[in-house]
Structures are given as C-alpha cells and as structure tokens.
Amino acid sequence: MTVEMTGTVPERQIRRYFGTRAYNRAYEVIASGRMHSMRSAEKNEGTPDAQLMLSAEVESTAPVVSTRVHSSVGSADYQVSASIQIPAGKIVSISCTCPPSTAWVQDASIPLR
Q1: Would residue 1 count as lying in a domain?
Q2: Alpha carbon 61 to chain centroid, angstroms
C-alpha cells in the first residue's frame, strides 16, 4: 500500500481544532520516543471513502492507582489511533485509551490540505 498525502495540516489549525492541551500532549508523546508498534492499513481502497488507519502503542508513565471503577490504572501501554479519509484529505477520527486524566476521543473533520 502506498498512500501519497500532498499536504500537511498547519500546526495552528490542529491546535485551534483539538485545543492547545491535546496538541501539547500529542507533541510531548511523539517527542518522548515512547511510541511503538506503529501500524497502518487502508480501508475501502480505491473508493471515494477510502481511509488510512494509523495506530500505535504508547509506553505509559502514569502511576498505578486503584479506584472503585478501575482496579488498576496506569503503567500499562495505551493505544492511540487516527483515521484519515484519503480522497477528501481529512482526519475523520482520533482516539486514545490514555489514563483517565488524559483520555480523549474525538470525531474530527479537519482538512489536511
């Protein structure tokens, strides 16, 4: 599979759409080198709704805590993912199974061009 993306999303646009906190957190995770097991796959290849699915695991730095809801939270790797609609050049969804204090799921429609 070869997917050519001809543009990038300006940082100010990402920050405005997802918020400064989410942007800064994503930047910190990427810069930390804790991402591993990165994968990509294409869904509905060759169709108008073709999507590029990206996923990775992130080594957590969260301390282990016990709560009534979660018996053990923290220290385990968590998953991050994004889906990009290729023909339209838009991020259509992002998600993270981050520790509860930083968890987020976002349905997006942010243009890549």
Answers
A1: no
A2: 17
Tokens for 19, please give them: 């918020």
What confidence score (pLDDT) does residue 41 get? 93
Tokens of 21: 């906190």
The residues near 62 (Cβ < 8 Å, ≥ 6 apart) are 73, 74, 75, 99, 101
Q: Does residue 5 lie in a domain region?
A: no
pLDDT above 90 (res 56): yes
Comparing C-alpha atoms, which of 105, 112, 81, 113 is closest to residue 18?
Answer: 105
DSSP 62: P
Q: Which tokens hold the place of 25?
A: 């957190």
Of 28, 75, 80, 82, give the one whose Cα is nearest residue 53: 82
Total count of domains within the chain: 1
Is the per-residue pLDDT at 113 higher than 60? no
Q: Which residues span the domain enclosing 44?
A: 11-111
